[in-house]
Amino acid sequence: MIPLSNATLHQLPVQVTTPRYDRQKTTAGIAHLGVGNFHRAHQTMYINKVLEREGQQGWAIVGVGLRNTPREDKRAAIMAEQDNLYTLTAFAPDGTHETNVIGSIIEYVHAAKDRAAAIKRLTDPDIKIVTLTITEGGYYLDAEGNFTLDHPDIKADLARDVPETAFGLVCEALRQRRESGTGPFTVLSCDNLRHNGKAARTAFCTYATARDPILGAWMKENVTFPSSMVDRITPSVGAADITRLDALTGVADQMPIFAEDFTQWVIEDNFCDGRPELETVGVQFTDDVGPYEQVKLRMLNASHSMLALPGVLMGYDTVPHAIEDTLLLGHLERFLAEDASPFITPPKGVSLAQYAQQVLHRFRNPAVGDQLLRIASDSGSKLPVFLTDTVNGVLGSGRDHWRLAFGTACFLEYLRGTTDKGTPYTITEPAINAEQLALARAEDLATGLQMTVFAGWNLKDHPDFATDVVKIRQSIRAQGTHKTLAQHAG
Ligand code: CS2
Description:
By secondary structure, the chain is an alpha/beta fold. Helix content is about 45%, strand content about 10%.
């Protein structure tokens, strides 16, 4: 097998498509914070195509890793060894696949190892856009959408001379750009959040104002924060996946990734310092991302959670395995049609019934085999984003809330860390501290609903929801998740 680097690009097997542009002639116009698998399967793929087009060579990407972890150290080392190249294999539901070497990241900065270097990179006048995938919880917003300045991470960062968070790095770079006359860049959130542009604006401008009110005011005036809807199912990559993917592609890539063949990116056209011609490579531009985002978050992401939480308790491992269970499939179909859809205003021309079918078709993709534990992870940040509007819509209109109570009960039971059969699994919940976890695990099963996860849900006016959650939790413990669902469905 051939190792991956600039020098070996021309030797790769024919079934692997390599960049059709000269990487040496590209320069970075975008800095991306949080170079995880999703970014490497989505934005980088679009930019890889844009770089082929005439006059677009100034839009390559500088990747910025933020975390100070061994995983990040490893990523930075591999990126250096492979000249920032990696393979992306896209699988269609019928098993056909296509591999591309992605060349659009041309530089990688390990910010945790050298904060000052990262800030300096962001002050380069060629950097016109800073994009973000820092996760749902990474914006430090409370249930009302306010930035939590009193959060220990943010307090600590505000006290540092050289900041460490995404907010600190970006605001310090913008401060220097303002002072030197370089001017602003666009900050583009690519995270699954409601109104992610507005959320990013609130987070970054509040942070900046706390550091320096003049900078905060200047950012509000000059920096744009377009909203965007991003979509592509991108599973985690374990050691066995690396072996499998490398055998398939014939490339000894140390950090290959894979994804479904479906991909979508809808962006509000509001860039303060120019943008790549992404509309030429399949990106949709619009004045209002809201309807696209509602559909995606409340249907795809929410049904992912509504499947993963009971699925984990039932002992399933992947999405296609869980959805083969007709009980879970029927549950999702009804959730999509009867709970989520009635409260969504879709974009013109989009049929929610068809979208629901497409979501389930994507979930069935056996080659993707997305892990339920990946989806369940960080539910503490995800559920408020994916379910709040649906829960409030259902409760407010007096519709049947059982499926949502079931999802909630499954979330609280999942936080115990063992399946119905007692098999332990690791929960990854960065937004749930020990105090919050204790609420979920309290003996009185209603206590879990006091968690801040539910702060935006209008539960006070609907005590019957809490009663049902408790009953369902008791039933899950007494007879298992599957039977509990079967009894209701039957
Ligand atoms: C998933 C998403 O993590 C999750 O909860 O629902 O990662 C999902 O796969 C992507 O948003 C798809 O675009």
